[in-house]
């Protein structure tokens, strides 16, 4: 028997929610299949797809395997052998939660294979434990949206106090993924350790207003509030052409635009699919003007999150 | 002809929303009456009630008069003479937005007297202009809730981009006002100019979760989120017995507890009126143990804001 699950990509931070907000998109995503193996423990029998050659097969270092191992320990089923195959259908290091998607797909598949019956929220800690191997931190800002779907606030990572926010019908996302590399480690290291009070007050207000905008389906408010004055200015320099890409988005009807996760992907929000497609082309052109190839992803908010396939 | 308006007290900051969140309570509040005068311009013919002897009658320095003057200038009616009488029914320097209440009541009364027909939102800039005389800053975190009612987020003070948040039915407030003085100027001056990143992330998450808790009527979440790790620790020392008062609130069923505005009043939120009353008594006792007299205010959230009387 083989069980296969799909876990979607996600936009961490969503600009104004550094480390605490995440948004699930429809595609791309990773798939992981799980089946019973004779030997106890978790093995990675194969990794195929994008960048698969760079990912570790060692079960101690592979996000999917570590996540499933944590689940087995929780269930007291370390006697069981599980074999995973990972189908990478999204780029690593893109700022779209690639390692989170692998960890999430793995625990969803294993939960089904084992007939463990855990809810998605129950599975979250194990997905985070897996993702931690790749990111170095126990964070749910990609795992929670990938698993649960929607737009998710993480009030507290330690207790995984996570909350789905109301999503207005029709909210559209355009992600432009430039073919350059930004290491999350670098993107973290450049951040100043302190935030000036006025920026803290302003960013707090924008985050709260963004949440209100989502609940009230107030698109102009969502747009005004998506204005990151703390992280984006510090990280923009890591993405050549970022300002031109953002200007292209805003000039072409985006509600707002910022960096997805630690970058280099850039996302913009829209209230119209056609406008999103046109703006996406303009954003891609702005990267091209810098000599950078990029890929466009158009999506609604994925309200389902991870699913069995 | 005389027109009289009532504007209620308000809780600025609400703990986790420094400078951007305000909550309107039912009472106390200030009343201001306005009538036409022969001489052009705004005069303050009388101030009666609590602390009235300390408040300036000079129309250039009085919050209510400055607010009405700003309204007259906006309307192009500086030829008109208006005489104000201010009935202070709440203490100044309590952290309950006393000067904001006077300014709000004054513009609401003058708007009616002049039959100007401005909406409450239209009146907000003039109330803020009046309040600025007392506080030194153009802030809406007391004027907006006092005027509009409810719980209000101020996304931006410069453009007065203010938004009422959904308020769960049954949310109860207890304010304990100790008879000590904390100058807003002092309470501002002691704040460090920078916020460490982890505290910024944590406080942002709590503010966003507090908003979500309000929209979802999720009282436990409202409680967990009302946890100010930035301002409260810096200001607690200005209020003798604060920690004991807060403990008394939490031990007696408060969802959360923090400092109202710049203090010295302490507020706590509840989902039950009886529990609020019992906890209020315990909070008062904690102040008494420090040798400090205090006054208890029990209230629901005032959804009406300022009204004509």
Give structural notes.
The structure is a homodimer of 309-residue chains. By secondary structure, chain A is α+β, with helices and mostly antiparallel strands. The first copy, chain A, folds into two domains: 2-165, Ribosomal Protein S5, domain 2 (2-Layer Sandwich), CATH 3.30.230.10; 172-300, Alpha-Beta Plaits (2-Layer Sandwich), CATH 3.30.70.890. Chain A contains ten helices and twelve strands. Chain A has helices at residues 63-75, 98-113, 120-135, 143-148, 184-189, 197-215, 219-225, 231-235, 242-251, 273-289; strands at 2-12, 21-37, 41-49, 81-88, 151-156, 161-165, 172-178, 194-196, 256-259, 266-270, 294-300, 307-308. In chain A, the strands form two sheets. In chain A, strands 1, 2, 3, 4, 5, 6 and 12 form a seven-stranded mixed β-sheet that branches. A four-stranded antiparallel β-sheet of chain A has the order 9-10-7-11. In chain A, a hairpin with a 6-residue loop joins β9 (256-259) and β10 (266-270). In chain A, α1 crosses α3, α2 packs across α3 and α9 packs antiparallel against α10 (273-289). Chain A is globular and about 60 Å long. The mean pLDDT of chain A is 96. Chains A and B meet through β5, β6, β8, α6 and α7 of A and β5, β6, β8, α6 and α7 of B. β8 of chain A pairs antiparallel with β8 of chain B, so a sheet runs across the interface.
Give a topology summary.
The structure is a homodimer of 309-residue chains.
Chain A: E1 2-12, E2 21-37, E3 41-49, H1 63-75, E4 81-88, H2 98-113, H3 120-135, H4 143-148, E5 151-156, E6 161-165, E7 172-178, H5 184-189, E8 194-196, H6 197-215, H7 219-225, H8 231-235, H9 242-251, E9 256-259, E10 266-270, H10 273-289, E11 294-300, E12 307-308
